[in-house]
Design a protein that fits this description.
Bound molecules: zinc ion
Order of helices and strands: HEEE
Helix content: 40-55%
Strand content: 5-15%
Largest sheet: 3 strands, antiparallel
Amino acid sequence: MVLTEEEKAEFKKKGEIYRKIEYEINRQIVKLELQKGKLEKELREAIPGTPNGTLICKICYVQSMRYIGRTPQGELFGVEEIYECEICGHKEIESNLF
Ligand SMILES: [Zn+2]
């Protein structure tokens, strides 16, 4: 089936409209990504932290977990780094922290 000249013109018009929509939507996505980055930075900077804290305590929501050593060799899940909260004393292995 061959397109008529009218159909071709109609498709070209639709393509032009689509191109404008695509441009506008991509422009909005870029703006939102920029805003997302700013918000994530704001969130990171808002985390309170104790002087020795390197990871966030799940209980206190403060970067107050300090490294205290490793689990002994030969345990079920292998050697893990252990952290302890300087505020509440909660202990956690590194793989459970963020
Ligand atoms: Zn804590």
